[in-house]
Design a protein that fits this description.
This protein has 13 helices and 21 strands. The radius of gyration is 24 Å and the shape is globular. Helix 1 runs parallel beside helix 2 and helix 3 packs across helix 5. It has 2 domains: 175 residues, Flavin prenyltransferase-like (Rossmann fold), CATH 3.40.50; 205 residues, 3-Layer(aba) Sandwich (Rossmann fold). The longest helix is centred in the middle third of the chain and has 13 residues. By secondary structure, the chain is of the alpha/beta class.
């Protein structure tokens, strides 16, 4: 990372009580080296883990703890810091502070400053794994995601309490990169609701076997991440993948095509733009076996029935929403993509040959053609899927 990348930016860092609070010293030091002006707000419990003096020395600014402390200058701290902030970061963020913010409670300096600021807020949760998975906590966390907060998902591993699982504060490098991405990425989708689908679906044959495809979900996840980076509120409906959730997106997991249809239709009224990047199974077994099929015969025939065409359904009801599709082909790529574009009443389609070298399902790169309903076509060279995601968003803006 280059020095002075954050020159002229003011970051207000909130620190809550938890063993991970000691990592805040490294975070403050890193932000200062990048040129940021850093102001620290600590909760009462945070000072039990790391002293304000340490963070004051590193930040070179007074650390605020008590909401009713006599001000050094004639300004109200929570209003002053709320106005100064170009960005607020809460790391580590306890279940307590997340619950307060989600429910509009402002009873200490940190929660009050969050309520008063117009700056974007990044939250990095850290807590016991059972607390993290508690349904009440997840409801609170989802409230923040839906309100546009960026959530840096916690890591997995051995926790300070001795438990193993998800809940440890994400690596400082990831948090710093999230901060850098916020400042270097334009916020041209702020206020937009983006619904993205990704990954494969699985259609059960019996309790052991299923029909699926080679989709890795990488392209759809990259698009969801790009939307979040550019200020959109994002819901990602995904089939089974091994990918980490995109930062800043609400993730809704499904298995079958009909489940994806139900979830897409449920959230479609909320969306301003829909990107259907999922590879949905076209067919499913007519009958799902209750017990595992045994190898009694040399030949096995499994009757299939057609799954609903989600993109076709959306095209019928889309109204003024922007609808983007994908076409993964092996031959006559543009011809099939143009036909799909017209038949399904979509605004833009991204087409690629999945058999091409360094492209397709498992690759981190892709080579595509973007075809528009007005006849415009754009052929792009091979590039990383994350870079391509931003180009796709640029083209959506032109619709």
């Amino acid at each position: 990372m280059t020095c002075n990348t954050l020159e002229g930016k003011t970051v207000v860092l909130g620190i809550t009580g938890g063993i991970a609070a000691y990592k805040a010293a490294d975070m403050v030091s890193r932000l200062k080296k990048l040129g940021a002006c850093v102001h620290v707000i600590m909760t009462r419990n945070a000072v039990r883990f790391i002293t304000p003096l340490t963070l004051q020395t590193l930040s070179q600014n007074r650390v605020v703890v008590d909401m009713f402390e006599q001000p050094h200058y004639w300004e109200i701290d929570h209003i002053s810091l709320a106005q100064k902030a170009d960005l607020m970061v809460i790391a580590p963020a306890s279940a307590n502070i997340i619950g307060k913010i989600a429910n509009g409670i402002a009873d200490d300096m940190l929660s009050t400053t969050v309520m008063a600021t117009k700056a974007h807020v990044i939250i990095a949760p850290a807590m016991n794994t059972n607390m993290y998975h508690n349904p009440f906590f997840q409801q609170n966390l989802n409230k923040l995601k839906e309100s546009g907060f960026t959530v840096v998902e916690p890591g997995e591993g051995r926790l300070a309490c001795g438990d193993c699982g998800k809940g440890r504060l994400q690596d400082i490098n990831v948090i710093i990169d999230t901060i850098l991405n916020f400042f270097k990425t334009r916020q041209d989708y702020k206020g937009t609701n983006a619904l993205v689908t990704a990954g494969p679906t699985r259609e059960p044959i019996d309790p052991v076997r299923f029909i699926t495809n080679h989709s890795s979900g990488k392209m759809g996840y990259a698009i969801a991440e790009a939307f979040a980076q550019r200020g959109a509120r994002v819901k990602l409906i995904t089939g089974p993948t091994h990918l980490d959730p995109p930062q800043g997106a609400e993730v809704i997991r499904i298995q079958r095509a009909r489940e994806m249809l139900d979830r897409v239709m449920e959230h479609f009224p909320w969306a301003d733009v829909v990107v259907k990047a999922a590879a949905v199974s076209d067919y499913r077994p007519r009958e799902e076996m209750v017990h595992k099929l045994k190898k009694h015969h040399q030949r096995l025939e499994i009757p299939l029935v057609k799954n609903p065409d989600i993109l076709m359904e959306l095209g019928r009801i889309k109204g003024d929403k922007k609808l983007i599709g994908f076409a993964a082909e092996t031959d006559n790529v543009k011809e099939y993509a143009r036909r799909k574009l017209l038949e399904k009443n979509i605004d833009m389609i991204v087409a690629n040959n999945v058999t091409a070298k360094d492209a397709g399902f498992y690759s981190d790169t892709n080579k595509v053609s973007i075809i528009f309903a007005n006849g415009k076509e754009l052929d792009l060279p091979n590039m990383p899927k994350r870079k391509l995601a931003h180009i796709i968003l640029d083209e959506i803006k032109t619709l």
